[in-house]
């Protein structure tokens, strides 16, 4: 993927990421759809973030940040999220072996 500008941390996106990782761990599932039927956009909105675009990466079983990033970069869809110039903020969280990374651009 071609280079893009720097992305900044956003606590609301991290909150949404954490809520999804906690839910996946508690309910023992792995999906972009929450156990209550929510999608990433509704979880991001619930965190208080008003978005115009969003993306989500999830992963399971990686031992550290370097490993999960290497894994995400090897998968085309995940790499496209990471290198998407439309996304200017992100948050990531890990609970147990479940990782969630949220990307967005505010309205």
Features:
single chain, 107 residues, alpha+beta, four-stranded mixed sheet, 26% strand, globular
Tell me what you see in this structure.
The protein is of the alpha+beta class. Helices cover 38% and strands 26% of the residues. It contains 4 helices and 4 strands, in the order βααβααββ. A 4-stranded mixed β-sheet has the order 1-3-4-2, with helices on both faces. A hairpin with a 2-residue loop joins strand 3 (89-95) and strand 4 (98-106). Helix 1 packs across helix 2. The longest helix has 17 residues, at 11-27. It starts with 7 loop residues before the first strand and ends with a strand. The model has no long low-confidence stretch (mean pLDDT 97).
